[in-house]
Design a protein that fits this description.
5-stranded antiparallel sheet; single chain
C-alpha cells in the first residue's frame, strides 16, 4: 500500500504555489480548507494563487502567439489572480503523486468547505464554469480592482483583517497601451430602505421592502446570489439574502447575524450616499 502524503507537504506546496503576494486572508483560508479536507480523506493542493500582470499575459499568449493550448481569456489585469484574491486547486491521489481532475463528489465537497470559509466558487458561475477556481472579492468588482480599489477581507477563522494589499497601478494607466479595454462607469442608484426587522422566517417574508434591501446589497456588491437571475433579487428574504446581509455586516463592523435591522439600515444608507 502506497504511503499517504503528509498534510504539511500539501500545505508547503500550496503556500509555494500561492506566492508571497497572495492576500493574507485568502492564504489563511486556503490552508484551513486543505486541513479540513485532509481530515475527510481528501487531498487538496493549491496550484495557483497570485499572478503578476506579466505572468498573466504569458498565460494569455498560450495558443495565440506562443505554443500550447489556450488556457485563459484574461490578459494582465483582467484576472482576480492578478490582485492576490483568487486560487486554483486540484485533488491528488493518496500518495500525492497524481493529480485528479475529475469534478466529482469529493471535488464539490472541497468547494463546499471553501465556501464555508468565505470563498466564492467558479463552479457556481452560470455562464462559464471554472471548477478549480476559488476567490474572495470582498464585495468589489473586477472593474473596481482595475481602477485601483482593494478590498479589506475579514477572516472567518480569526476575524483578523487582511494585511495591506499589494499595490498595482490602476488599470486606466494601461489603457493607453491597449492592454485593457475601458468600460463606461455608471452612477449608484439610491433606494428607500424599510424600517423594522427582516430575517428568515417560515414562510419566507416577501415584498417590496425585501426587494429594496436586496437592491441596495446588490448596488454595494453584496449580491444575494451572484450570477443568478437578477443576481438573486426576487423579493424573498431567504437564506441567500440573509447570507448577503451577514457578509455586509461582517465587512462593516456590525454584528454578523444576517438579520436586517436599524443599524444595518443606517450603514446601508450611509454607503449609498458615497
Amino acid at each position: 500500500m502506497a504511503e499517504q502524503i503528509e498534510l504539511q507537504t500539501l500545505i508547503d506546496r500550496s503556500i509555494r504555489n500561492m506566492g508571497s503576494d497572495i492576500n493574507s486572508v485568502v492564504k489563511e483560508s486556503a490552508i484551513e480548507m486543505i486541513k479540513q479536507a485532509y481530515k475527510e480523506g481528501i487531498f487538496v493542493q493549491i496550484t495557483s494563487g497570485y499572478r503578476s500582470f506579466a505572468e498573466q499575459n504569458k498565460l494569455y499568449a498560450k495558443g495565440r502567439t506562443s505554443s500550447g493550448n489556450i488556457v485563459t481569456n484574461a490578459k494582465g489585469g483582467q484576472s482576480n489572480h492578478n490582485y492576490g484574491l483568487a486560487i486554483d486547486y486540484v485533488l491528488l491521489s493518496a500518495d500525492g503523486k497524481k493529480a485528479l481532475w475529475t469534478v466529482n463528489e469529493k471535488w464539490r465537497r472541497v468547494a463546499q468547505i471553501g465556501k464555508a470559509l468565505g470563498f466564492s466558487w467558479g463552479g457556481d458561475w452560470k455562464s462559464f464554469k471554472d471548477y478549480p477556481h476559488l476567490e474572495m472579492m470582498g464585495s468589489l468588482t473586477l472593474l473596481q480592482l482595475q481602477a485601483g480599489k482593494r478590498p479589506v477581507l475579514v477572516s472567518f477563522l480569526s476575524n483578523k483583517v487582511s494585511a495591506k494589499p499589494i499595490k498595482t497601478k490602476p488599470v486606466h494607466k494601461l489603457l493607453a497601451k491597449g492592454t485593457i479595454k475601458s468600460k463606461t462607469s455608471t452612477s449608484k442608484k439610491s433606494y428607500n430602505l424599510p424600517s423594522g426587522i427582516l430575517k428568515v422566517t417560515t414562510p419566507l417574508t416577501k415584498g417590496p421592502q425585501v426587494t429594496a434591501v436586496q437592491k441596495v446589497l446588490s448596488s454595494l456588491y453584496f449580491y444575494p446570489d451572484k450570477g443568478a437571475k437578477n443576481n438573486g433579487i426576487d423579493g424573498y428574504y431567504g437564506p441567500k439574502t440573509a447570507d448577503s446581509v451577514k457578509r455586509f455586516q461582517l465587512m462593516n463592523g456590525l454584528v454578523a447575524d444576517g438579520v436586517y435591522g436599524p443599524k444595518t439600515k443606517n450603514k446601508m444608507e450611509l454607503l449609498q450616499k458615497k
